[in-house]
Amino acid sequence: AQKVTQAQTEISVVEKEDVTLDCVYETRDTTYYLFWYKQPPSGELVFLIRRNSFDEQNEISGRYSWNFQKSTSSFNFTITASQVVDSAVYFCALTPVGFNKFYFGSGTKLNVKP
Amino acid sequence: DTEVTQTPKHLVMGMTNKKSLKCEQHMGHRAMYWYKQKAKKPPELMFVYSYEKLSINESVPSRFSPECPNSSLLNLHLHALQPEDSALYLCASSQETRGPFDNEQFFGPGTRLTVL
After folding, report:
1. Which residues, 6 or more positions from A83, have their beta carbon under 8 angstroms from its beta carbon?
2. Chain B interface mutation, best of A45, A48, A99, highest count of B Cβ atoms under 10 Å
3. What 8-state DSSP symbol labels residue A43?
């Protein structure tokens, strides 16, 4: 069975706080990709990152960082020094390589207040 | 050009109308997708076109009819819709390697559809 769980439905922080969005996944496949997408109020989903299951290196891109741990089946996303423009719904997603399936988590709505 | 465009932005239609949603990309992507998204839910996959052929149909009712006239265009024809079909319809495209979902998808801004 394939499943992506984002247990945090909604998070509110004050600007400049750090915030971590959790993503836990289930898959029996050994080769898969994990993704994070951002959906601002305008509606368009924006790709943030893709991670191959064989690459457990953490990644940092500016204020964004991702922690991939196969041992706990987690792919968490941290925003450092959050800004109001980070307010959006964030989706974690999974696809087993070569399968014609794409599994979105339910999303986490992040509210960053000034 | 890393943009996916969708028209119209908003559409209101009656249950007896026929309308079409349009999507266009010029990134040379060979996989294109239609998703339906209800409020506060993740997108749900409807159709995938791979190299202009329908490769995935997620058991979508026949009142939704996709069409891929060429590698840059994707249409969704709507006929006899129900009020519960009101949603945001998102188009996306991606390069395709082994499978259509292996690469990042580029999404359009969506068409917000209301069925009266």
Report:
1. A15, A16, A63, A112
2. A45
3. -
Q: Contacts of residue A44 in chain B, CB cutoff 8 Å?
A: 90, 107-110
- A42, burial (CB in 10 Å: exposed 0-12, middle 13-18, buried 19+): exposed
Cis peptide upstream of residue A41 (ω within 30 degrees of 0): no
Q: Which helix (H) or strand (E) holds B31?
A: strand B31-37
Give the phi and the psi of residue A71 in degrees, each rounded to 5.
-60, -30
Q: Which of B40, B98, B101 sits opposite A102 (nearest CB)?
A: B101
Burial class (CB within 10 angstroms; exposed 0-12, middle 13-18, buried 19+) of B2? exposed
Higher pLDDT, residue B84 or A99:
B84
Interface contact A99-B101, CB threshold 8 A: yes
Contact A91 B42 (CB under 8 A): yes
B107:A97 CB<8 A: no
Q: Which burial class, exposed, middle or buried, applies to A110 when counting CB atoms under 10 A from its CB (0-12, 13-18, 19+)?
A: buried
Amino acid at B70: N
Query: In a structure prediction context, what are the per-residue pLDDT tens digits for chain A, which is 114 residues long?
Result: 789 999 999 999 999 999 999 999 999 999 999 999 999 998 899 999 999 999 888 888 999 999 999 999 999 999 999 999 999 999 999 998 877 788 999 999 999 999
Query: Could you tell me the maximum CA-CA distance found in chain B, to the nearest angstrom?
Result: 41
Q: Is B69 on the interface with A (CB under 8 A)?
A: no
